[in-house]
Every structure is written in structure tokens, then in C-alpha cells.
């Protein structure tokens, strides 16, 4: 039997079987439709993502409002001092708000993170050998 003859016989049979499976009462198509319908009714994951984005947007808006309030307070303070006081110089120009209080868990809590600290290079000069000597190690890194 040739391939083309087998194809002529089997193709109508396979087509009829597939139609029966897909279209029968409890067939695949009814399951697909019911799964799609149930999937459309539950839109919680997208709602959760939208709510997170809304929270981030609201937080950004609160931050902007805080900055605007800070600017208004500075302006009100300058107005209460008087524009001609201090020669018309803005006393708060270039300043930033104080660092927020922390929980005290860190040894650097309450310190400004932009603070450069103290330059200790002048204590022993510019030579790195002094630091090695103070650390108790020789040039080969041994004690």
C-alpha cells in the first residue's frame, strides 16, 4: 500500500475522531472554554501589581508634599524675619533637613551619611609603612 492511498483512507477517519473528541458533550473544547471563563473572573494578580504601583506613586506624592511643605516653612521663616534682615541674605540657602532619628542599633546612628569624617593621614605622615608598623606586621605581612 502506498503512502498516498493510506493517507486517503486515514485522513477522513482521523478528522472524524478529532471532531468527536473536541465537540462531544464533555470534550476538550468545553474544558477549554470553562478554564478561560474561570481565568477571566480572577484578576487578583494584576490588581495586586496595580495596587503596589499605586502605593509607590502615593509614597512619591507624599515625599513631594513633604518637600513642598519644607520650602513653605523656610519661606515663612524668612518672611517672619524680614526680607531686609541680614542684608537680604537667605540664611537657609544650600541647607538640607536634619537627619532622621534612627533606632540606635548602628555605631554610626545619628550621623550624617554625607559626613566625610576625620582625616587621620596627618597623624603618621604619608608613609604606609608607618601603618604597617602600628599594625604590628613587617613588610612581608607577618607578625
In short:
The chain has a domain at 1-38.
Written overview of the protein:
- The protein is an all-alpha fold.
- It has a domain at about 1-40.
- Helices cover about 60% and strands about 0% of the residues.
- It has helices at about 5-25, 30-40, 45-80, 120-125, 130-135.
Overall residue-averaged pLDDT value:
75
Structural class, from helix and strand content? mainly alpha
Number of β-strand runs: 0
Into which percentage range does the β-strand content fall? under 5%
- Taken in chain order, the helices and strands follow as HHHHH
Biggest β-sheet, characterized? none
Helicity level: 55-70%
* Terminal CA distance: 92 Å
Low-confidence stretches: none
> Which overall shape is indicated by the principal axes computed on the Cα atoms?
elongated
Question: Could you state the oligomeric state of the chains shown?
Answer: single chain
| Number of helical regions | 5
| Rg, Å, rounded | 38 Å
Amino acid at each position: 500500500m502506498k503512502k498516498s492511498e493510506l493517507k486517503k483512507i486515514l485522513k477522513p477517519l482521523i478528522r472524524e475522531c478529532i471532531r468527536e473528541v473536541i465537540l462531544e458533550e464533555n470534550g476538550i473544547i468545553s474544558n477549554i472554554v470553562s478554564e478561560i471563563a474561570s481565568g477571566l473572573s480572577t484578576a487578583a494578580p494584576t490588581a495586586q501589581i496595580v495596587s503596589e504601583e499605586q502605593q509607590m506613586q502615593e509614597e512619591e506624592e507624599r515625599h513631594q508634599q513633604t518637600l513642598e511643605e519644607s520650602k513653605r516653612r523656610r519661606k515663612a521663616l524668612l518672611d517672619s524675619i524680614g526680607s531686609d534682615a541680614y542684608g537680604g541674605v537667605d540664611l537657609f540657602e544650600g541647607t538640607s533637613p536634619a537627619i532622621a532619628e534612627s533606632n540606635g542599633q548602628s555605631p554610626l546612628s545619628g550621623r550624617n551619611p554625607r559626613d566625610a569624617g576625620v582625616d587621620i593621614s596627618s597623624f603618621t605622615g604619608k608613609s604606609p609603612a608607618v601603618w604597617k608598623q602600628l599594625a604590628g606586621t613587617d613588610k612581608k605581612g607577618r607578625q
